[in-house]
Amino acid sequence: EVLLVESGGGLVQPGGSLRLSCAASGFIFSRDDMSWVRQAPGKGLEWVSTIDFGGHSTYYVDSVKGRFIISRDNAENTLNLRMDSLTPEDTALYYCATDRRGTNRGQGTQVTVST
Question: What does the pLDDT average to over 57-71?
Fold first, then answer.
């Protein structure tokens, strides 16, 4: 059974930073591309970023380019998202997922950017 457990969310002021992590189990992590998706209050799921199975290629939605960095540790079966220069528009429930649509995702970790 695929299990994805996100952590690292919290309340941060605009301009601040957070680092999200996702612990994966139940599948061969090193063979799968992995993604982060998010859901802002009252909105649908939005793809944020993807990293290929080997960690060599990364992709980002335009709104986070230059501010977010996705990474992975295949030895530890973990996926990470470093988020800098956060804005209130980044407030959302963040999920790690095995696909860009977020069909198979964890329970999420809340990120709130506010003064």
Answer: 98
